[in-house]
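I had to read the description of the data format several times before I understood it. The format is easy to grasp once an entry is in front of the reader. For illustration, here is how one protein appears when written out as sequence plus structure tokens:
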Amino acid sequence: MHDFAEMQASSILSTLGDKYCIGAVSGGVDSSVAAALVHKAVGTRFRPFLVNTGLLRLDEARVVKERLEKHIPGMELKVINASEKFYSRLAGVTEPEAKRKIIGSLFIECFEQAVHEMGLPSEQCMLLQGTLYPDVIESTSFRGPSTVIKSHHNVGGLPARMKMQLLEPMRLLFKDEVRELGRKLGLPENSVMRHPFPGPGLGIRIIGEVNRERTDTLRHVDDIYIEELRRTGHYEKIGQAFAVLLPTVRSVGVMGDHRTYENVCVLRAVSSTDFMTADWYNMPHDVLAKISNRIINEVRGINRVCYDVSSKPPATIEWE
């Protein structure tokens, strides 16, 4: 990975020429490592942005900005608040592939607008993406559209009209290799070992239509889940953990002396190194019980919690 970092830094300089690099930064492992790599190569010609889509985790935009600016000295991260635009465009959309493509298209619109406001011609910019090899494999069809597993917003969801060329320095790496690269670039362990978070964010963890109310509910559920995993020492043992909201599924329950008819959420946790395959994580029952009790008692509108025991394959890690 040391040799890879040096080789890629040289390649990035050669590819970029006199252009600027606009960073598609989310704060996840992939985009953080990509940002560190490109900033190392070109310094201030790298202009990173974080799009607050309204589909991020709780308080994510602020935390990511503080963390990256601290660990990548000299880098300034611009936050673009576009949540209303994303909620408006996703209204009424329920099909997973359609949601992914809408989110990918809006990402590019936000970046093109930001570049315009900076006075940089799109033709003079390249767009950094933290694309990995599993993203490429799952988004590429060798036998026609029906064989695509799912479109990743940074592979299959980009609009044909996009003016900026892509810069994907980690396109041939797997997740474990990216983590090692991050260490070589000086990123702290809590950054490189952070669980993956998909580009479309919580938009593909809400089954069906996405809106602010549903996203806020899921944000709260997810925050409790991750907090308890960290507290009990299981976060570091798990490759990826997250919650899924099933807003179209209602469950009968009892709260005190009253009947309830409310939402169901699903907890997912998997063990994996390359994320091409994954096994569901055998969570201790007492940990699951504590998490479930907290979610039901603290999150309004949830009265049932389920645990996903599906491996990849046949299931994918994400639900959509």
Observations:
- Residues 141-158 have pLDDT under 50 and may be disordered.
- The chain has ten helices and nine strands.
